[in-house]
Amino acid sequence: MAAGRARLSASILxxxxxxxxxxxxxxxxAGADRIHVDVMDGxxxxxxxxxxxxxxxxxxxxRLPFDAHLMIAEPGRYVGEFLDAGCDSISFHAEVAxxxxxxxxxxxxxxxxxxxxxxxxxxxxVLEPYRAKLDIVLVMCVEPGFGGQQLMxxxxxxxxxxxxxxxxxAWGGEVHADGGVxxxxxxxxxxxxFDILVAxxxxxxxxxxxxxEVRMIRALADEGFQYQLNxxxxxxxxxxxxxxxxxPRAIGRRLAAExxxxxxxxxxxxxxxRVNPDGQRDYDLLIPATAEARVEERWAASRQRADAExxxxxxxxxxxxxxxxxx
Length: 327
Fold this sequence. Notes:
This protein is α/β, with parallel strands linked by helices. It is built from eleven helices and eleven strands. The radius of gyration is 23 Å and the shape is elongated. The model has no long low-confidence stretch (mean pLDDT 94).
């Protein structure tokens, strides 16, 4: 995984469709973070592309996550096929003429990330009723249906309102920019606050060094975020983890479970820390650095209680070890 904040999803819509397996491997080698698959049915949008069988055949080509964008009229009817095909996340359009919640629920039951996409003219407000069920908001920055279009800046400015849908979460939730992302627009897109940048024609253009394009788009997006939204401070790299607490294993597990119940992942690792009276070292509880401020705000008191419990436990073990046995 690359350093920095921006993540790049390589859209294979504009790749060499006669050599899709090779193109996906090329994107992986170039440093793409995931593969974006645009599914079009000729009804919801005026084009026809990939189906679930194609995705299933390509799934064995790479271990990168597959991010499916269903531009189809009946996502509820077909979502099971795309789940079976191995998609790691599935987004479909809020504008479809069917209930949205059942499809979102079906994606979650399969243990995958669920998202809603909106066209350039659709306001973010239509997503409000579904905010608790969303892992992804995909903002179309071009009219859906064809690759290679120019980015619509007014549509891209919906990133921050979309981000507000996840404001009550300590961690998680992604806002994707789809359409018109390239080296010329990456800084603007980063300044809008997008998490995931979907790029297609910019990567698969004949004669371009794909790895260089990936690096440039990411770097420019991070620079835009830094100077427009982060007061000139470099963004926190998404792969960074920090220690939130160091505790005996059993006590640490309970605190980790509490934090994870609040939606933040925790890794518990034994390190070179304090050795307890039972001869076992404390375990560090690691959290994503991007969530550190929220975790401190929400669970500092719980950490304080866990620390007090650990001190009492250590003291009891020490008392028991030094107690004079009765004659």
